[in-house]
Amino acid sequence: MGITSKPVVFAVLAAVVILIGTTVTVFIPLFMPSTQPVSAYIKPYTAVEQEGRDIYMREGCNNCHTQTVRPLRTEVLRYGEYSKPEEFAYDRPFLWGSRRTGPDLNRVGGKYPDSWHYKHLDSPQSMFEKSNMPPYGWLAKNRLDTQYSFKKTSTLGYGYSENDVQQQIAQYRGTVTDERYPSKESRNNVTPTELRKEITEMDALIAYLQKLGRDVKKMEATK
Ligand code: HEC
Question: How confident is the model over 69-88, as pLDDT tens digits?
Answer without folding.
Answer: 999 999 999 999 999 988 99
